[in-house]
Amino acid sequence: MHTFQPYPVEMIEFNPFTKIGKEWMLITASNGEKTNAMTASWGGVGVLWGKETAFCFVRQSRYTKEFIDNSDYFSLTFFDKSYKSALKYFGIVSGRKEDKISNAKMNLNYYEKIPFIDEGNLVLCCKKMSATPVLPDQFTDPGIKDTWYKDNDFHTMYTGEIVQILAR
Question: Which of 104, 133, 155, 163 could cysteine-pair with 57, CB 3.0–4.6 Å?
Answer without folding.
Answer: 155
